[in-house]
Amino acid sequence: MVALLPFERCWTIGTAKPGKSMKFGALLPLTLIGVSLSGASCSSTVASIDPGKYDKMSCAALNSALGDTATDISRTAISRGKVANTSLPSWLLGGERVKTVVANRDTAKIERLQQQQQAIIAARKKRCPSSQ
Predict the structure, then answer these.
(1) Which residues, at least 6 apart from 49, have a Cβ–Cβ distance to it below 8 Å?
(2) pTM of this prediction?
(3) Is 14 left (phi over 0), alpha (psi -120 to 50) or beta?
(4) Nearest to 89 by CA among 7, 32, 12
(5) How far from chain centre, in Å, is Cα 103?
(6) pLDDT by residue (tens digit) across 52-97?
(7) How far apart are the C-alpha atoms of 79 and 73, rounded to whole Å?
(8) Dihedral sign, Cα of residue 67, residue 71, residue 72, residue 77
(9) Shortest CA distance to 76 belongs to which of 47, 49, 112?
(10) Alpha helices in 43-94 (DSSP H)
(11) In the predicted model, is pLDDT for residue 40 greater than 50?
(12) Distance CA 11, CA 91 (A)
């Protein structure tokens, strides 16, 4: 007989043979949701867009900012896709709602990043003749 800690009993599921448990099967969906939520909250957030700050930047700085913004958009879109395609078990109550909330948060972040990108492009067109 295997002695389980109190918290391990809560996560043991399935019809495992005596002495064996299937703890990790239950933890996987919860871990995926936790990682998605922590990743969404730890990533850089975009504050209000101030087009005036881009007017003061050099062409090289604008190009760099544009590349950084494009990278952030791609990273967020990939994260949103992973969250949307995560398969959750039906017994995980509220799992689909969490997926929807995280995907909507990522969509809003992408929209803000796209607005920031458009502000950088407009400033670059005014300031840098070679970008046209």
Answers:
(1) 112, 115, 116, 119
(2) 0.60
(3) left
(4) 32
(5) 8
(6) 788 888 999 999 999 999 999 999 999 999 999 999 998 999 999 9
(7) 10
(8) positive
(9) 112
(10) 51-55, 59-84
(11) no
(12) 13
